[in-house]
Design brief:
146 residues, mainly alpha, 4 helices, elongated
């Protein structure tokens, strides 16, 4: 290529001459056959609804419940009826589970202790004022004797 003139030199690759013909073969797929063969629809997180029509709830075990629960986990709404919130609330009520209960109890105990200390400090301050008044009274009385 001559950079100055902007023209392109057309030279065949080594082993080929100007008269050599090159056959290009392009393979194309039938779009309709492709769409019938390949599912091109997208679903959230790749999760599809499980077909539970074969399932008899009367024969279910706890293991079956958790297998199904794990399979449909992302299909369960976060809030509302029949949601993750419903499961959490009902299970918490059944087990009397209160989240962070140990930490809450420790904090309540600390609050009680601090209130007792605060009350004792108030009593001590009141006693100090009473003693201070007694000292002032005695001092005033002592000055009156002079």
């Amino acid at each position: 290529m001559d950079n100055m003139s902007g023209s392109i030199e057309n030279t065949p690759p080594p082993g080929l001459t100007d008269s050599t013909s090159v056959t290009l073969i392009r393979q194309a797929f039938d779009k309709e056959a492709f769409n019938q063969t390949v599912d091109t629809s997208f679903t959230q997180l790749g999760v599809t609804e499980a077909d539970l029509s074969f399932f008899d709830p009367n024969l279910a075990t706890v293991g079956d419940f958790f297998t199904i629960y794990n399979n449909i986990f992302f299909l369960i709404p976060k809030t509302g009826p029949n949601s993750h919130t419903t499961l959490t609330d009902e299970s918490s009520e059944y087990t009397n589970y209160l989240p962070n209960q140990a930490e809450i109890q420790a904090l309540l105990d600390e609050i009680t202790e601090l209130r007792e200390q605060n009350l004792q400090l108030i009593v001590d301050m009141g006693n100090m004022f009473a003693v201070n008044e007694d000292i002032k009274s005695l001092t005033d009385n002592a000055e009156g004797f002079n």
